[in-house]
Amino acid sequence: MAKRVQLVLNKDVSKLGRAGDVVDVAPGYARNYLLPQGLAVHTSPGILKQVERRRELERQRLAELKAVAETTKAAIEGKTISIAKQVGEKDAIFGTVTAQEVADAILATTKQEVDRRNITLPDVHQLGSYQAELKLHPEVAATINIEVVPA
């Protein structure tokens, strides 16, 4: 079998790895594609130290994001927010409750900012109580109670 070349990726390469990964590739692939395109560099002790340092910084950054998400979850979890809507016959509301309305109500009630794209709502077409799922981090989710009341 031919000798493999060890490189560190500068950018994400599909089906090979992400930026900062150390990869073993065929010499022709390295010589003809990865190196001329600037997608990778040869490994050396100094570059391997830089890669490890970058990984450690990324781990710290992800840990901080998770800690912020845990704090937000503690402030939001189990709270009940009220959303006032115009009501028609048989307690049916006009329109529906949107994720943006829920995000605004959470901000007004708990002073915690939540991205509307991370809110999963059930179909809300009548007055009543509902539960929404908030995805604060890939490993942290919270549940909030929504009370739809007449305006």
Q: Helices, strands, pairings?
A:
Layout: E1 5-9, E2 22-25, H1 27-34, E3 40-42, H2 45-76, E4 80-85, H3 99-110, E5 119-120, E6 128-137, E7 140-150
Parallel strand pairs: 4-7
Antiparallel strand pairs: 1-2, 1-3, 5-6, 6-7
Summarize the structure.
This protein has 151 residues and is of the alpha+beta class. It has helices at residues 27-34, 45-76, 99-110; strands spanning 5-9, 22-25, 40-42, 80-85, 119-120, 128-137, 140-150. It contains 3 helices and 7 strands.
Structure report:
The model has no long low-confidence stretch (mean pLDDT 90). A hairpin with a 7-residue loop joins strand 5 and strand 6 (128-137). The protein has helices spanning 27-34, 45-76, 99-110; strands spanning 5-9, 22-25, 40-42, 80-85, 119-120, 128-137, 140-150. The protein has three helices and seven strands, in the order E-E-H-E-H-E-H-E-E-E. The chain starts with a strand and ends with a strand. The strands form two sheets. Strands 4-7-6-5 form a four-stranded mixed beta sheet. Strands 2-1-3 form a three-stranded antiparallel beta sheet. It is an alpha+beta fold. It folds into two domains: 5-64, Ribosomal Protein L9, domain 1; 71-150, Ribosomal protein L9, C-terminal domain (Ribosomal Protein L9, domain 2).
